[in-house]
User: Fold this.
Amino acid sequence: MTDQEAAALGAEAIAEVKSGHVVGLGTGQAATAFIHALGHAVKAGLTITGVATSEASATLARRLGIPLVDEPVALDVAVDGADEVDPRLDLIKGYGGALVREKIVAAAARRFIVLVGTEKLVPALGARGRLPVEVVPFGVSFARRRLGELGYTASVRSRDGAPVVTDNGNLILDCVVDSIADPAALDATMRTIPGVIGTGLFVGMAHTVMVWDGGRARTLVRSA
Assistant:
């Protein structure tokens, strides 16, 4: 999805936000486009409060005049992107490094709306070969070993030769995966490893996925 397509999709998502809403603000390309659209709406008179899933999104929101609260309690809607979306609207997220805060915000929202291009739609989660797992630094070596015993080779995410540190002060292990037969079971199993804070598997969380496809937005809704 190009930046222009993301901007168009973000503008479409503004229709889901009403004055008085508390809105979760995701992280990444699609979420950034939505935050820009929301900033324009706020300047035009929309009255909302935002909850950001990352320091980067919070900085952008403040610059655009979007009022923020620090912690999610109950949100009306959360809007974010995803790295993979399967036919059941289950997701892999976390390539941008904000997976734990994103999951907290999504769980706190009455509606969780995901914005993607068609390239993010996959027949089964794991198609892109990577699953992020956030781990406390003290437990990284142990978690890597335990994940390896489960059959998932994991490496510490790094940038410019240094480990990537999340806004929570943790590290990210990127696990090599292929097609995941049971995402919910894998998420539960990985979270039993001491030191693992959360995985990039978002199972049963997205209510709506808006897909930019052929110059327009089409909407996928989770089956009851």
Notes: The domain at 3-121+203-215 is CATH 3.40.50.1360 (Rossmann fold). Residues 114 and 141 are 33 Å apart (CA to CA). The longest strand covers residues 109-117.
